[in-house]
Amino acid sequence: MSSNSSKVFIARLLGLDVFDPLGDRLGRLRDVVVISRSLTKPAQCVGVVVEVPGKRRVFVPMTRITAMESGQIICSGLVNMRRFQQRGAEILVAAELFDRRVLFADGSGHAVVEDIGLSQERGGDWIISDYFVRRGEHASGILGLRRSRGERLLVPWNAIIHTALHEPQAATTYVAAHDEMKPADFADALHEMNDKRRVEVASELQDDRLADVLQEMPDDEQVQILSALGMERAADVLEEMDPDDAADLLSELSEDTKHALLELMEPEEARDVRRLLEYAEGTAGSMMTPVPVILSPEATVAEALASVRREELSPALASTVYVTRPPLETPTGRYLGAVHIQALLRTPPPESLGNILDTHLAPISDMADVPEVARTLATYNLTSLGVVNDAGRLVGAVTVDDVLDHLLPEDWRTHDDHTAKNPPAKNGDTHG
Question: Domains along the chain?
């Protein structure tokens, strides 16, 4: 590989575009993969992880990386577009080594890893040659000099103790470092971890954060994580999930486990989930949320706008206010109609909702199947639709994302179909 310098630093590579020899963009570099060889040898870099369109991450061997220059990375030959799966001996530098606390080999204290340098040996292999670290405490330095707290140092690889290199970055550190990551992206990151690491990291999340992330994960991984939490905490996490997502997850568990968790949940939260579990799979009732925004016809536009501003509401649920007779909790009194967000924005705040109802759009039956719900949403360009029982009482609302979850293939979150021009790699370049 050619480079403008004899050394490259991994933090500067993250996020760079990766191109093929013809100049077509393959994706963006997200991490670097190394393996630990022994205590007397530096870790070897074996490849990089590239995020291709579709948010799927693939492995590109270092033997295919031909250049890192002018803010871009160029690879050659065929690239295996199969999803990257980390093997036991492999270490993801950004995910597992950055922000890790390490010890200096001379006994002068500890430091935190901020960056790692790679250098190419004469034989062509790329190795970890340097650590860029932030020293944590006052201590005698490597050369016997007094170092101040927070000082940053560039040290050779053998100045750092490597005995724990195979161990992953502490789960608490990983969670803190990715606190701003969107739930769907965090779910993608968990998906790429091995089973043990996935459970370790997920267990460190706060209940509400874990609930948001679980809702974005495949069913089998949801079950795996929930089963590892212990019954008490699993019930707490289920309470934080949207009722329809909690019901979907519980339906994947054994009957005994499902009933035990429902008993541990707060009665009010469990009640909504139990109602959803009573519906047959594939009906509007089974996929709806039982807690849409519901107000009386006497409520004002100002009250409605305040209600849809709630942070916990999804954009789809916040788009519509449903108006019913008391009681206003599902199943409600008689369903009267709906008021869409645009109507609220166009109407004076003191106006009563009963005066601006959309009564022409009929709600859908809780027994309607997925195709009927999808057709209704598409026909009227809706993001949510009221669901009523045979007595005309509102029992919930179904949103467009609920329908998509049922129309897409079961494995859509991890689906590997990819219309890339690069065919699978030849023997010797496969991974995962």
Answer: 1-169 (2.30.30.240), 171-278 (1.25.60.10), 294-407 (3.10.580.10)
